[in-house]
Amino acid sequence: MSETAVLTAPTATRRRPLAAVPYVIIGIYLLAALFGPLVIDFDPVATSVTDRLLPPGSATGSGTALLGTDGVGRDVLAQVVHGARTSFVIGIAVVLITATVGIALGAVAGYFGRFPDLVISRLIDIMMAFPGILLAIIIAGLLDRGPLVVIIALSIGGWVGFARLSRGIAMSVRERDWVDAARTMGVSTPATLTRHVVPFLAGSVIALATIELASAVLAEAALSFLNLGLPPDVVSWGQSIAGGREYLATAWWITVFPGAALTILVICVGLIGDRLTRRFTRKRD
Fold first, then answer.
1. Residue 259: pLDDT over 80
2. What global pTM score does this model have?
3. CATH number where 235 lies
């Protein structure tokens, strides 16, 4: 065994537990989003004046506020747990919609080229001229507040990244031997796309989807922070953070705990996305 291999093996062993940390944290978030609201009851519109602005660990009329209470007496831990479900539901819905639309348009543009490619490419250029969050703010501001409105607002421009990625890969795949063989054998164009082109996009699309999930969660929190996203009866980390702005000097926990939950989630999802992107980029090269 070479000296390099001897030195590298322990290093790789030490890095494996650290590499699993983002996956473990995301798993905890998913468990909290799935089962937390079933365990922790919370009414987002109920208030308790006697329990307002209690620090973490204080006793309340209904138990112990482990993370304290906010300005109207609502439990901060319950807001964090219920906010996790809201973030995942909206984030996953946005990614599914944008990925479906983006893959379809990008694959068609890359496979056919010529006029379809020209039209779709110009549409992509137009959408890229508008910042995604600005477009979402305009749409959310024009419509009534609600989860569906937030999903639509974030999906309007979110498909562009998937379309650009799918178009580039489809252009490189359409001249491959197996695609030529399918065309020679008389396989229909839709079947060629779905069986021999789109599956080749899977790895790169999954990598991009993780990054887009983090962006969608962050954008939803931004809309709610600006009071443009979700109504008061739907819990959101952005609303919780905004609700604690005026109490930062006296009740820091109202903003810090939801903000920390949002930050940790976005960082972990981003790390996983970067890792998957590097892996599938190497495979494609």
1. yes
2. 0.85
3. 1.10.3720.10
